[in-house]
């Protein structure tokens, strides 16, 4: 397309020096000059030490090539290709260097830097672990190395169209068939509409193999769910006979993941390809449970906790990315004259972060990011302690409790992260709605994590179940460990929960004191647990079954589990703050402020505080929040820079580290798809036929109207002297 | 592409009758059979009468052709074309039939049925009203008819890259230049990066004209903001000299809107093309204010209120659409065995709506939708009363208050709608993340409304400003009108706010009583207003300026404005419930339950209740909610069907009226873009080179491993008899 304009597309000259006046490059530098702590030290603290920071940066630097800045403009095929290329590229390179990630944090460092997340995360993150967990040594020996090196690409085919969380209800069938030669095989079928495999990532267009969960049937007898390793595509990407696979369609985000469906019709699978760690079917059709290795329960917990600690840290990292973007933009963006009396349209304006509501919304999420990262660190450390065999009896005793809290924490963390991202996106105003803001894309890509792999409500109710059990134990006088130790006094039927309430707050200082707040959170959780237990028991006494009573109390149980998790996080945060203070008192000061703000914002916006804080205290609470916001303000940018998230990962026009937000927005707009041609495709067909061609020939040249007015009825007005920009 | 599979793509045969077992077509019919009220009557009630329902259905039926079911798979150019075609098609047709919409509701009926929203909504919704409001009669006479019939297409070019809400700070300049022949013209420029026009819909690729807001400068004197009608494109869609326009890039949603930017370099505009209703520049460069017609203040309020009532109803309508989808899916979707003791994977399961937490989340949003629709109706009626000149002094006196509450209401309604949509989306589990669920797309398309055209925080703070003014008036003993009348007793310095508190709730029944709840909400709002006023005054007494004190109290002021709006909605809802009860007592019963649930959920999840309700009452509150949920349950589907939103508008696989959710999901998947070819484009380049070709030749035929196991160490297990599906 050629343009009739003297300025070719995108070429209105920026000749005047004033074009960049109002440039914002220095704003963030000035912000940083007000920081009261050493950013590098804070980064080390969050990473868990200087050495870890160094290692993280090394890992990150290996993946520098993986830039895909205009991702939001790419279509899905483009995104998938880019993902396949970069993911395989990165991981093969690491493998060649002999590098093996040490823990979940290192895994997430690798993947966070793969800007372009997509289907192969399932190959490594779900398919491989399934082999590791369920395959026999012989099977593992064959398939694991090929998986690691992408010689086969696998997906985890568990969920079905009609079944998600109720795994036991899956309907895919694997029917054993005996052969005359005594070999035997399975016939896999998805016999009903609702039994078709639904949602596995990588299944749609990429995977060559699948770990298929199916009900094992031998002679029409049911043996429960088992996993079958099934080849689903040939080397050219075509589906094998009897298999129909496809993508599910466009999702909110996660576009590089070919989330798929699969129907199977009499797909024959060798008997030896049922994963055989736990059970084996003989050629004659006999079913044997293998001698299940009595697993070390501690190690079992440790693995689960490791995963959950990782997900907690990952959620914290995502929220930290969002907070980084929104905090930077809120310092660059101005709105509203500082002095409204001049009437001069060029006079100075306020940064939006200096409006209290905005400041609260930003810093609340910053504090929450720190809380999640620190809780994740604490859990990671616990897991490492266990792994090194340095476990004390006390630690082992507290494991069930921590393990159960971690289920809820993981659920809560994903939900809080998504909610936080959305509010931070709104904090970026209209521009937050552009995908190139980074924050909108981030939220859309992340959203599935809240509802997938165990909806957050279901997981939190698991935590509630443990809390109710502990309450029962406490009342029976059984010993308790960890956080639920606070329930022990309940063995005395005369014990009053209200005796756990801290003394009423007498000044705003109390609400700025994390130790006071911890007591308050503890009181809330205990009171809620007891109230829930009473509600449940009353319902059962009135004749309900446990299940019915549980469901009738579920709303309250859910909130109670959340309260417990918030308490848990505050406790871990306080512990870490103490550690940080020892390392460097200037870190300690700001970390205490963050802990207090985290807690206070949960009181202001949270649930189950009725009856815990009275109206007078709530005034003090508001005062404390207002003071905390002002105290944290000078560190706003330093706190997010300490997260140390590179621009390449943020992939954000409005959240750039250098503050050149407006230049970036303009550039991204110019580079976007619709602007590839000056004239809209379809303009001639859909718009032009309606236009008044004569009118449009005028091109602003001749006046098209004459305006009649009577000077006598009007008022002559003199302008004011215009100032220079 | 050809397939090596005996089943061509998408053709695994669905031969068995069991394929559709677990079909869900009857589920919603059964649900409806339990309804306790007449759905058609409820629809009439929501529409404001039988006649209105009839008219709405007529309008909707005119636009039946506008179906675009796989919208989520279309790229932006496709979506824009489709939008242009359908929007112009619908509106030209209406115009030819001589139909003119009577009120905002009718406008929104027209647009809600234009499934494919996009840029031309700006042409009609912003460009045209600007002409109507700011053009002189001569200008209007020329441009309005051409606008109505798409002979020119306009955009509203107000916001700039650096300026949104602070309109007075806009930096685009219109400099008056005298001509020798005495004609004179303006030169328009965007002199700085931050002054480029940013965000106008239709500007990016479609509009031929723009209403450009610019600072008028004559002889370097400033005359403030004025609007200039500028042609920006020729009839072929090319930008005119000096103008650079483009799209901003892909957004979260709203893909058919070419939200754009514009730079201007010495764009010459005839003197007569400055919109001249309020001011005129003579050829000599003299500036006259026209004899501003003293507008009828009541009519001014009425117009604003009409718009806001419309936005409130629109927000209610969007949330109602989301609630419809989620309620239907929650009845169709099952999860978890009803009887967990059998161990049979085919045994019956619970509908997810029968889990309390899910039931609460769904019905809370249903109740909120009713609250918004009813408040919108109430406002619409008020506006009509005024327009008909039937206004009483009382109504006029209460206008400022209603007007100010409406600002906050509009803000709150958009925010609540977006928040509600997101939770409803989560209620649809993984499938809610698919764009073809309708609900994900809806939320993404709607999201901008919360932050655009006056961020919701800013609008709510306007409401707070009015509340503080009213408090001052009350304390001075000045008369108050409308809702803030409750502040009048404060003229007595000895008056205790606590005297407004209703008697403590003594049973759950109290919390199911909308009148009791209204008192509680009133008490909360008054207490919050007084507390805010005190906080503000104390800060000023301690030496802060009003602006600084205001900002330091902003968080509390914001929450107070919300509390006030929630009270306002409850009051309107109660009024409407009374009206509905008179019409039909069976409607009244369920509407009262909805009002109570609306109020109770705002207590459970809301703010500023500390000190208003004690711990004992909060137990009763929970009990009331639990009972309300059970009482409303049989009407769940009837309540959403009463919204009467056609499938075509919902555009949802999971929210179909007939309940055939799984068939629709499968069909949509098959039709999606990535499945147009069996093999992924790029498979050969990005995947195949890594694959183990030998391994993949096996195609599940030969066993690839041999499994060694020692029978002696294993346990022989017998299966259970499998039941038939």
Q: In a few lines, what is going on in this structure?
A:
Two copies of one chain form a homodimer. Chain A is of the alpha+beta class. Chain A has helices at 27-32, 39-47, 50-62, 76-96, 104-112, 120-134, 137-148, 297-332, 356-387, 393-427, 439-446, 448-451, 456-475, 508-511, 514-541, 546-552, 554-583, 585-605, 615-632, 636-641, 647-650, 661-670, 683-686, 693-696; strands spanning 154-157, 173-177, 185-189, 197-198, 209-218, 221-231, 243-247, 260-264, 267-270, 279-281, 287-289, 334-337, 349-351, 715-716, 720-721.
For the largest interface, the chains and their residue counts are:
A-B, 231 and 229 residues
Largest sheet of chain A: 6 strands, mixed
CATH superfamily of the domain at 297-641 in chain A: Butyryl-CoA Dehydrogenase, subunit A, domain 3
Q: What is the terminal-to-terminal distance of chain A? A: 37 Å
Task: State the oligomer.
Answer: homodimer
Q: Could you say which overall geometry of chain A the principal axes of the C-alpha atoms support?
A: globular
Please estimate the helix content of chain A.
40-55%
Integer average pLDDT of chain A: 88
Q: From the 3D coordinates, which CATH architecture of the domain at 297-641 in chain A would you assign?
A: Up-down Bundle
Number of strands of chain A: 15
The CATH C-level name of the domain at 297-641 in chain A is: Mainly Alpha
Give the DSSP E fraction of chain A (strand runs of 2 or more residues): 5-15%
Structural class of chain A: alpha+beta
What is the count of DSSP helices of chain A, taking H or I runs of 4+ residues? 24
If you compute it from the alpha carbons, what radius of gyration of chain A comes out, rounded to the nearest whole angstrom? 30 Å
Question: Which blocks of ≥5 consecutive residues of chain A have pLDDT under 50?
Answer: 1-13
The CATH topology of the domain at 297-641 in chain A is given as: Butyryl-CoA Dehydrogenase, subunit A, domain 3
